[in-house]
Amino acid sequence: MKDLSVTAKYTAHCWKFGKFECAELLDTDEAKFLFDVTNAILDLTSGKAAPSLPHSLVQRHTIIDRLLSDWLLQEGGGGQVLELAAGLSARGVRFTSNPDVSYTEVDLPSVLGRKRELLARTPAGQDAALRPNLRFVSGDLTRLDLESLVDPARPVFLIAEGLFMYLQADAQRVLWRRLASLCAQPGSAHVFDLVPSCEEAQANRAGRVLDLGLRLVTGGRTFAKDERTRGDLSNDLVDAGFDSVTTHDPSGDLDRWNLPHTRVPTKQLVFHASGGGAGAPTS
Amino acid sequence: MTFLAGCLCALFLLGGLRLRGRARALALLPDSDEPVHPDHRFLYPDGVELDDATKRAASRYAMAADLEVLDLVPADYPGTDLLGLLELVDPNSYRGQFFTPARTAGAAILTTEDCLRRAGGVAKDFLGGKAHDRVDFVRAAAELKRCAPRDTSLALAPGLGHDPLPLSERLGVLRILLGDFAGFALLLQGFIFLFMGFLLWRAPLWGAATVVCFHGQALLAFSGLPWARKEMIKLALFRSFLEVYTLVGAIARSRREAEDDSEARAWYEDFRASDQELFEPVRAACPHCEGEALASVITTGDAFQHKPGEFHLDRCSGCGLVFQNPRLSLVGLEFHYRDFYDGAGAEKLDFIFSINPDCYADRARALEPHLDPQSAPESWLDSGGGHGHFCLAASELFPSTRFEVLDLSEAPADAERRGWASEGHCATLPDFSRETPKRYDVISLSHCLEHVPDPVEEIEAAARLLHPGGHLFIEVPDPTCKLGRWLGRLWLPWFQPQHLNLYPADTLAELCGRHGLEVLEVDHSDAHQPTDLHYAVLVGLSRLSPPPNAPWRAPTDWSHDFVHAIAWLVGLPFLAVSFLFDKLILSRFAGRPGWSNTYRIVARKEASS
């Protein structure tokens, strides 16, 4: 297993743990086992004040769901969404229950193949997988023709959850340029999560264990780290062609998001970049 | 003895946990009222009952999961067979493993009209349950999987009526699933049962513990699965008896596969009678630099097919080329290649090529840093690519690239039919380069140059076929590797009689430069294949006991099968230890000069060429 599908499995059960609607359609015993074992190791190796990985992920997923809901409201209830590295997230299934939303999920063939099989296990999942407004596109992001996946005449909402932390700075900038070019229509937006390395706690035992585990199961790939701050990342996004950037830090604005698990220490940062000359995001 | 008994208990329990994960991942088809998709077809052997409800459920499942082939496992499948199936296949990852040979319950298969057309012949015989032969059914399943390598899976069909596999056909089915390892697997199973019996006799407590663990495997695997409750109870109580009965019955009642190889035998007999010259004259000078200082490297026989003949390798002291001397003539090459990559050897090679699927993707990744990061190559020719394994793996990384495969056999046509390559060409690279107006962005020669009589002509042809700025990728064994000297005739990369020319990296790089190809990288470490020691054990075992039933040798009887299986059973611990040594120890030395058994060259055709 030299890809990152192991993280897709972990998060698949994490969304179930976070009680997200439809998450059970993509959950498996294997994912639960991976989730439980990883968390047990992290609990054993980290201090009490250290941010909790599963709770941080749940908060991140919630924020992105809310941003997407807000955007769809702004767009009159419908719109086109492109989610990169969608993994085993059920967001596409949740949002395409609204037929006015057209949703495209992109990921590696092995991940999407498994995802469709998991959906096929239940009648509800089968109905979702066969919806005309939910499309699965497999391929490697670095070379996939993203322009062919969106209607250039309509605004688009681009999601990349749990992706940029694995890309080096140069690869991030290249992908942002490509994504900014997709956001030519006013109202388009790109949402993703990325905690700058300088804001991460000093690598503790838990961090090192997570890093080692990821290297082991992915054939050496792990988190990319660099010196850029939030401001630097925002500047990079503007340089890439986005008009403006807002960041959402759950720890700084708990009430606005009405997030779960507020008593548990977490660490997340969600970037919300707008394109198409629309000015700052209003959400 | 107690240590071995303890190990066996631990293995049974760990195996049970592994089977538990797999059994839980086996999807149960949900009911569906939707009609069967018009493109879906059902294959099943005579005697299987496939009702409309199961067809509807399977069709809906296949559509939702976007599958081309869905193997249906009956819910009343015998527990011993289900455990055997789950030993072979992990439903969690089966779909992603596109080189893994097909695993089937042998009951029924859903496929698409298009996939059925590509699979052709034997698969069509089972449309609507007309044919009976289970061995052919498994063969059809294997071909269907090859035609839908990314979109094949299996699911549990509660309403599927099942006709148990007759004991007389079990060995034949196992031979399709495991190839040459079938006899070995049976013997290993028998050996374990004998050991358990011995323990019961000599150390009853430990014997009882192993039996409890063996029976308990079913409880571990199937507890909590309502559809498997009946079989779980049966296995928990009677597994040893059922397994021994099946094993003994399969061996005793098996029709010794009188596979019709009369045509192949006739060809080899005619060939022997024709008394044709298999070798060219002995060379006094190096074919590359004409240097006359030659040193003997090894003399060996055919270690793989055990066809008659002795082969000698010389090393040129001037340029370092290691070459077969005397070299096989074209007639000799035809004789020795026959039934290796296709014909009688096709299934075995397919199995071997599926063992390390990552190596193909690794080769494609090795070229990635030299390509435009924003756009994929439009066209890629894999020369010497056989059935298109590389093309299939590389197309995961470059999905928009058009992959073509070229080889001097029927294999490229199979690759095209199965969809592993966009197009297959049966030709040599030099001939192809003269005939086609096509030009390519990338040409790969992976483990190909050492097989061809004239590598210079090959490089020349590759240079001609590349667009200016296009890339040539070469991967070949490194004849300067120390292990080649130390392991001698047992070193796999000498690979006689097929490897005719083995170039050292600097000589090959110089050759590329001479043909307008700028060398961008010569890599010795990532290219290394951690196989030296365990392949040496395999070569040694193969010499000790050649595989049974080859049409170029006298027919063998059951005693040969038995001795062959015993040899492999005895060799197994050596194989395991050498495998670990290769992976964990030797691979760490690959980056040091003289330790890598393989190297790669990436070159670019100069833009002005």
Instruction: Give the averaged pLDDT of chain B, no decimals.
Output: 90
- Broad shape of chain A: globular
The major sheet of chain B is characterized as: 7 strands, mixed
Strand order of the largest sheet of chain B: 11-10-9-12-13-16-15
Shape of chain B: globular
- Seen as an oligomer or otherwise, the chain set is heterodimer
Supply the number of helical segments of chain B: 22
Strand order of the largest sheet of chain A: 3-2-1-4-5-7-6
Structural class of chain A: alpha/beta
Uncertain residue ranges of chain A: none
Count the strands of chain A?
7
Map the helices and strands.
The complex is a heterodimer of chains A (283) and B (609).
Chain A lengths: L4 H13 L11 H17 L7 H22 L4 E6 L6 H5 L5 E7 L1 H12 L2 H7 L4 E5 L17 E5 L8 H14 L6 E5 L11 H14 L11 H11 L3 E5 L5 H4 L12 E5 L9
Chain B lengths: L1 H24 L1 E2 L11 E4 L8 H14 L3 E6 L4 H10 L19 E5 H7 L1 H4 L9 H14 L4 E6 L9 H12 L2 H22 L1 H19 L6 H25 L8 H13 L19 E8 L8 E7 L5 E3 L5 H8 L8 H8 L4 H10 L11 E5 L5 H9 L4 E6 L3 H8 L4 E4 L2 H7 L4 E7 L8 H11 E12 L4 H6 L13 E2 L2 H10 L2 E7 L8 H13 L13 H28 L12 E8 L4
Parallel strand pairs in B: 1-5, 3-5, 9-10, 9-12, 10-11, 12-13
Antiparallel strand pairs in B: 2-4, 3-4, 6-7, 7-8, 8-14, 13-16, 15-16
Helix pairs in contact in B: 1-9, 4-6, 6-7, 7-8, 7-10, 8-9, 8-22, 9-10, 14-15, 17-18, 21-22
Commentary on this structure:
The complex is a heterodimer of chains A (283) and B (609). Chain A has a seven-stranded mixed beta sheet, with helices on both faces. In chain A, α1 (5-17) crosses α2 (29-45). The termini of chain A are far apart. Chain A has helices at 5-17, 29-45, 53-74, 91-95, 109-120, 123-129, 169-182, 205-218, 230-240, 254-257; strands at 79-84, 101-107, 134-138, 156-160, 189-193, 244-248, 270-274. Chain A has 283 residues and is of the alpha/beta class. Chain A is globular and about 50 Å long. Chain A is built from ten helices and seven strands. With 609 residues, chain B is of the alpha/beta class. Helix content of chain B is 46%, strand content 15%. Chain B contains 22 helices and 16 strands. Chain B has helices spanning 2-25, 52-65, 79-88, 113-119, 121-124, 134-147, 167-178, 181-202, 204-222, 229-253, 262-274, 330-337, 346-353, 358-367, 389-397, 411-418, 429-435, 455-465, 482-487, 505-514, 532-544, 558-585, and strands at residues 27-28, 40-43, 69-74, 108-112, 152-157, 294-301, 310-316, 322-324, 379-383, 402-407, 423-426, 440-446, 466-477, 501-502, 517-523, 598-605. In chain B, the strands form three sheets. Chain B has a seven-stranded mixed beta sheet with strand order 11-10-9-12-13-16-15, sandwiched between helices. In chain B, a hairpin with an 8-residue loop joins β6 and β7. In chain B, α8 (181-202) crosses α9 (204-222) and α8 (181-202) packs across α22 (558-585). Chain B is globular, with a radius of gyration of 26 Å. The N and C termini of chain B lie far apart (71 Å). The chains are: A alpha/beta (283), B alpha/beta (609).
